[in-house]
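About this split. The held-out portion is used to measure sequence recovery: a designer receives only the structure tokens and must propose an amino acid at every position. Recovery is the fraction of positions where the proposal matches the reference. Here is one held-out target exactly as it appears in the evaluation file.
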């Protein structure tokens, strides 16, 4: 018989990962930590389980955030979604924090992260210090009473959702960036004059560090050269487009911040040049197609780089290349629009739906696309219970039995949110995009590439954007929406448990056992339990949370 460690006031229950795989995850009973004058001791009341923790378990030391760390000697404590209460305050922090205050945690500090190289939420007590103190978001007791501790913890994934609609991209050339301009076909004299005038003004304003021109006309080359000389900028002029990636790569090891393909031409030529040059984009780089792009021009877009490196592809049929940068910068869901969510039944998909349905001015039609039976059933219950506000239609679609054209019934897609590992569905849905449609590649699909019609992207000013991180501002906004009752995260919870159930919760998350989020209450010992066992047909709530903790002797 295995005796499980139990908490006493002098001990701390801690889940530690000391290698790769679930066999490397263990629960330890350690001395309750003490703090110095510059530290906080917090009591961690709730941890909600994120698939990111599963990724760490499966990758171990090869995870990008743990490179160079020996987990056998420096194990990690997972859990990047948490609600904590201040237990003790170091002398030098007493002007900022008080015992008994509750906080959500914004985990991503850039070079460091809570639940990765900073010990995370899967332990009863934790010591916080340094930069993470600036990422603590205070929570009023009234919010806890109305929404529950679990909702505060879920402000982190909801903040990730919120952030994806507020991504900001440049509206012109990068200041002091590397610029590549390649002419792919013939432009009219008038088109080239407008392009030349706009470009030289922008170069004077942004002063690129280096300009490389490939197959440009003599007039355009001379105009750029004159402007470059005035600004003290290097200009490298290449004659031909053949093997352009090989030709220009020596001029910037870090990649190009802006790549402009000018002048239209044959679809095959434009597609080849786009395919070669898109790989030359630096992180946050922008590829801009300008001119008369023929229909059927293949345009490759790396969804992984869109998501992780924030690269962007824009285009315009107009000779003013800045129009492409500025034509579709609002990535928010729009009032009266049509929003399609691919993989809507997963935990993050459900949060996207709840946010959309909680907007002051929501879309008119929300199409939740899902194939997994349990998730489909949950979404169907949402539809039947009329979770959508008046004036908004929530539709549930199984793409194995329905076609998007039939569900749209003549409408066009204004926003498509990708939450599942099937990037190619974007290609299938492209004919149904409205002008200025947005593709939100929320799922981080490394190495997955799609091919779109470049003419559609230019004519409709289609945007493919992506990101799933969070910052303090957007998590604070998510927390405010929860506190104000604008968004209820109650329906997303599918199972609950105590601190002893963390391994089971992580395994269930890896296996998609439950159609929703798992909440762990770290002050109690409770096996992983589907909420229906506790609530019947009700969703999880602050009232159910309090009843469970009273019954179990928790906080």
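Reference sequence for scoring:
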């Amino acid at each position: 018989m295995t005796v499980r460690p139990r908490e006493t006031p002098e001990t701390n229950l801690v889940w530690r990962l000391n290698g790769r795989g679930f066999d490397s995850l263990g629960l330890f009973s350690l001395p309750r930590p003490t703090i110095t004058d510059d530290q906080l001791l917090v009591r961690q009341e709730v941890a909600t389980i994120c698939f990111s923790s599963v990724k760490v378990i499966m990758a171990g030391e090869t995870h990008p955030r743990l490179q160079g760390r020996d987990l056998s000697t420096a194990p990690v404590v997972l859990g990047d979604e948490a609600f904590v209460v201040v237990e003790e305050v170091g002398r030098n922090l007493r002007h900022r924090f008080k015992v008994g205050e509750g906080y959500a945690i914004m985990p991503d500090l850039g070079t460091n992260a809570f639940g990765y190289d900073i010990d995370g939420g899967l332990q009863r007590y934790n010591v916080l210090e340094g930069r993470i103190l600036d990422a603590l978001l205070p929570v009023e007791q009234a919010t806890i009473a109305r929404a529950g501790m679990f909702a505060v913890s879920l402000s982190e994934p909801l903040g990730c959702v919120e952030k994806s609609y507020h991504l900001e991209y440049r509206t012109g050339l990068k200041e002091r960036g590397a610029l590549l301009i390649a002419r792919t076909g013939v432009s009219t004299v008038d088109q080239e004059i407008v392009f030349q005038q706009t470009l030289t003004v922008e170069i004077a304003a942004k002063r690129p560090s280096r300009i490389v021109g490939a197959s440009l006309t003599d007039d355009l080359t001379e105009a750029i050269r004159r402007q470059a000389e005035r600004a003290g900028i290097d200009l490298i002029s290449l004659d031909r487009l053949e093997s352009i990636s090989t030709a220009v790569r020596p001029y910037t090891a870090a990649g190009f911040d802006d790549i402009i393909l000018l002048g239209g031409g044959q679809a095959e030529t434009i597609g080849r040049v786009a395919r070669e040059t898109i790989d030359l984009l630096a992180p946050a780089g922008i590829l801009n197609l300008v001119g008369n792009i023929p229909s059927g021009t293949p345009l490759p877009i790396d969804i992984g780089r869109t998501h992780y490196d924030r690269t962007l592809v824009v285009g315009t049929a107009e000779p003013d290349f800045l129009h492409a940068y500025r034509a579709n910068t609002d990535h928010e869901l729009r009032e009266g629009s049509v929003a399609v969510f691919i993989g809507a039944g997963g935990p993050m998909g459900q949060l996207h739906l709840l946010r959309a349905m909680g907007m002051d001015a929501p879309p008119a039609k929300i199409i939740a696309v899902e194939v997994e039976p349990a998730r489909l059933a949950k979404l169907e219950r949402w539809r039947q219970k009329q979770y959508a506000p008046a004036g908004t239609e929530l539709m549930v679609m199984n793409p194995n039995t329905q076609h998007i054209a039939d569900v749209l019934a003549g409408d066009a897609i204004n926003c498509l949110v990708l939450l599942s590992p099937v990037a190619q569905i974007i290609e299938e849905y492209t004919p149904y995009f409205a002008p200025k449609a947005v593709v939100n590649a929320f799922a981080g699909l490394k190495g997955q590439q799609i091919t779109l019609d470049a003419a559609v992207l230019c004519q409709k000013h289609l945007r493919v954007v992506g990101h799933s991180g969070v910052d303090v501002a957007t998590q604070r906004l998510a927390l405010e929406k929860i506190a104000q009752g604008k968004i209820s995260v109650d329906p997303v919870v599918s199972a609950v448990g105590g601190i002893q159930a963390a391994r089971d919760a992580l395994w269930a998350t890896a296996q998609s056992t439950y159609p929703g989020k798992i909440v762990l209450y770290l002050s109690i010992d409770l096996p992983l339990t589907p909420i229906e066992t506790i609530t019947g047909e009700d969703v999880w709530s602050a009232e159910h949370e309090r009843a469970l903790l009273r019954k179990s002797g928790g906080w």
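Annotator remark: The domain at 178-326 is CATH 3.40.50.720 (Rossmann fold).
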